[in-house]
Amino acid sequence: MKKLIYILLAAAATFTACKKDESAKINDVTVQVLIGDEPVTDAVEVTVTDKSTSTSYKTTAINGTATFQLVAGIYEASATLYKESSIYNGTNSAVTVVDGGSNSFTLKLAESTTSQVIIKELYVGGCMDNEGAKDYALDKYVILYNNSPLEADASKMAFGIGSPANSNSINYYLKDGNLTYSDYIPAWNAVWWFQKEVKIAPYSQIVISITGAINHTETYSKSVDLSKADYVFYDPEVFSLASNYPAPSASIPSDNYLKTYCYGLGTAWAISKTSPAFFIFSPEGGMTAKAFVTNPDNIESPTGKPAFNCAKIPLGWIKDGVEVYDYANIQKSHKRLLDSVDAGYVPFTNKSGYTIYRNVDKEATEALAENEGKLVYNYAGGTDDFEGGSTDPSGIDAEASIAKGAHIIYKDTNNSRNDFHQRKVASIKK
Questions:
Q1: Reduced to 3 states, what is the DSSP secondary structure of residue 430?
Q2: Fewer CB within 10 Å, N side or C side of the chain?
Q3: Confidence bin at 17 (pLDDT 50/70/90)
Q4: Is the peptide bond before 164 cis (omega within 30 degrees of 0)?
């Protein structure tokens, strides 16, 4: 029955997509789902997304093969498989459907790992000034969250961004539609790390100011107050651009300033305000982030130019990541994070005060006995500027529930299409 529903939904969506041009040819499209070189025999839902409209179609693969009926165009195929205690993710961003062609594609799944510490929220897009004349985006922050009932040690955790900075920029690591790396993620320009022991209590968070640990609302009312951030990216000996890095609020101790090393160029960390590929990692084997990135053997440039220098962060060190696509340029956007880190992406519109916020794991959160009577439903914090809207499918209002004392477990499938949505208002803006 479930399979039939998916097929009907795909057919209905296809009809809607073709409504503008009733003469458009409908093509049979097959997607073979593989783990390694072997077809997936388990039932797995496959999604194909039209990159021009962001319209998605879903069906369940039978013996590893999913079948769709689509008009010609460029699509992205993705799937997430839960198998025993493992999660497998995969994305094929080069599904080009042509009229009269064979239209047969493969979708390879890779095993993913979940992390105790996750990215709960990423605020990078900024807002408009009070007059609505220009945008302001020097108020970026990230929230790390302990998604477990045990204390988390984040002391060795570091922060990086994928290359290129924007999802729609020329990607020199992309060849014939595939990324040229498989066992590392290139961290562009610089990485940041904590300089002290950092512990995060169960089901708790830390707010880290990326730019401007001050109260931005004093000048821009639609912005956010980062004067009470727990930590701040601030190392003026390396990045000296005062507009990005004003002196932090006096309430933030200096040992809560993160340190950095720039192996690229510039006076500021060039995190995108439209579409970063943001990730966190923890070095292993006694290595530190500083020791790793200051070793020139670990630095490369896909063009040979220092402006494109990247640190080759081993894939096994990566704890979490979120791939963001600029919604206005979604057709021109390409993946930077490997599928085992993030097999999807979050469409995002900047300049509107929106934030990238993680979805609640409804089943796991409701299963916590201590949450009885504390969960708030009918979540309405999503946005409507996308086709079909953007929301948390769990229906749970995480922030309102936390305010009532609930413990939230957030979704973590290593696929941002499942795990995140665009939220109307930053969570720290009360």
A1: coil
A2: N
A3: very low
A4: yes
292-296 contacts: CB < 8 A, separation 24 or more?
293/187, 293/190, 293/191, 293/261, 293/263, 294/261, 294/263
CATH superfamily of domain region 2-112: Immunoglobulins (2.60.40.10)
Max Cα–Cα distance, the chain, nearest Å: 66
Q: Which residues pair with 50 in a beta bridge?
A: 75
d(CA 414, CA 82): 12
**What is the distance in angstroms between the CA of the first residue and the CA of the last residue of the chain?**
44
Angle at 189 between CA 186 and CA 192, to 5 degrees: 90
Considering only CA atoms, give the Rg of the chain: 22
380-383: long-range contacts (C-beta < 8 A, 24 or more apart)? 381/357, 381/423, 381/424, 381/425, 382/421, 382/422, 382/423, 382/424, 383/349, 383/352, 383/354, 383/422, 383/423, 383/424
Alpha-carbon torsion 32, 333, 310, 351, what sign?
A: negative
**d(C-alpha 424, C-alpha 381), whole Å:** 6
Q: Give dist(CA 96, CA 155) in Å, integer.
A: 44
pLDDT of residue 84: 65
**Higher per-residue confidence, 82 vs 9:** 82
**Contact predicate 244/138, CB 8 Å:** yes
Which tens digit of pLDDT belongs to each residue from 39-74? 998 889 999 988 888 788 999 998 899 999 999 999
Beta-carbon count within 10 A of 330 CB: 22
DSSP state of 54: -
What is the predicted pLDDT for the residue at 21?
Answer: 52
Question: pTM here?
Answer: 0.83
All CATH 2.60.40.10 domain ranges of the chain, comma separated, are: 2-112
Q: Which two tokens stand for residue 357?
A: 């916020």
